[in-house]
From TrEMBL:
This is Alpha-1,2-galactosyltransferase. Keywords: Glycosyltransferase, Membrane, Transferase, Transmembrane, Transmembrane helix. Residues 1-24 are annotated as: Disordered. One of its GO terms (cellular component) is mannan polymerase complex. The lineage of its organism: Eukaryota, Fungi, Dikarya, Ascomycota, Pezizomycotina. It comes from Tolypocladium capitatum.
Length: 313
């Protein structure tokens, strides 16, 4: 019996080719995607938790000492010095009673750079923020006004958050009578950084309260912007203020509008809410330097009253 021989191998076998170790292209693409997603996830974790190191800039948080700086700009070049001395005494006695700081400065101490000297009030506010970096609030009150009730601290009268929120006029035209820009409806008392009132014509810029901090610096610098100082607004810094609160949401979002009689009642009713006995402040809006309508004449009706309220002879 014959058996078939197996086929003889060729004496010239094909060259050896090692098996490829590369993955198929689709699989390699998937692995690359997974690796990129993993690296992105790790990077996000690092940014969230691993890189929280103190930066070079830290916003100063005022300690609240003094709690309020009461700022008034006087102009002895055009106003009677006897009248201005009563203004100075009024501010200093009130501040002394409540542990505030009274900052009475002269208008000509500031260079308004060609703008009307009334712009000095904004420069004085900026000066107060620099001079008293730890104060909590700046209250600017113009020279044509008296504080009439010394028993009321600014905190209990306006600034305490719940009290302020109860006073705030919400969803109301910022500039009367029909501005389409209205005060915010959801602003809380503790979040308000700028407190102001209205008269019949617009915002009462001669009695305003600003909370010290980063926002206050932004607000003051915006109000004093060279563009507004050179724009030749009809009522200078007042119209500039009304412009920025309507066109800058960052300012409007911090604005608390309160009734005028809270800290800006007028001695005459023609332009706004008139002063009544027991009100906190009386302002002599529209008073003149000389004549029967002078500030000195108008204030003379209130000078004995506030001195009596302060316990002064």
């Amino acid at each position: 019996m014959h058996f078939a021989y197996p086929p003889r191998k060729s004496s010239n076998p094909p060259p050896f080719r090692p098996r490829s170790t590369q993955l198929p292209l689709p699989r390699r693409s998937r692995l690359k995607t997974i690796a990129l997603v993993f690296l992105g996830f790790v990077g996000a974790l690092y940014l969230l938790f691993g890189s929280r190191k103190p930066g070079p800039y830290h916003e100063r948080v005022p300690s609240g000492s003094p709690s309020v700086v009461l700022v008034t700009v006087v102009d002895p070049t055009t106003w009677n010095n006897a009248y201005l001395s009563t203004i100075k005494e009024n501010r200093e006695k009130y501040a002394e009673r409540h542990g505030y700081e009274a900052m009475i400065v002269k208008a000509y101490d500031y260079d308004t750079r060609g703008a009307p000297q009334s712009w000095a009030k904004i420069m004085a506010m900026r000066h107060a923020v620099s001079k008293y970096p730890d104060c909590k609030f700046i209250w600017y009150l113009d020279q044509d006004a008296y504080i009439m009730d010394p028993t009321k601290s600014l905190e209990e009268h306006v600034l305490e958050p719940k009290k302020l929120e109860s006073l705030m006029i919400k969803d109301y035209p910022v500039v009367p009578p029909d501005s389409i820009i209205k005060t915010f409806t959801h602003l809380r008392g503790q979040d308000a950084d700028f407190i102001v009132s209205q008269d019949k014509e617009g915002l009462v810029h001669k009695s305003v309260i600003v909370r010290n901090g980063a926002w206050a610096k932004y607000f003051v610098e915006t109000w004093f912007d060279p563009l507004y100082r050179t724009y030749n607004f009809q009522k200078a810094e007042r119209h500039a203020l009304e412009h920025i609160v309507q066109w800058h949401p960052t300012i409007l979002s911090k604005l608390a509008l309160v009734p005028q009689r809270e800290f800006a009642a007028y001695s005459e009713p023609d332009l706004g809410d008139s002063y009544q006995d027991g009100d906190f402040v009386v302002m002599f809006e529209g008073c003149t330097e000389l004549g029967p309508d002078s500030c000195e004449t108008e204030s003379s009706h209130y000078w004995p009253k506030w001195r009596e309220a302060f316990g002064l002879k």
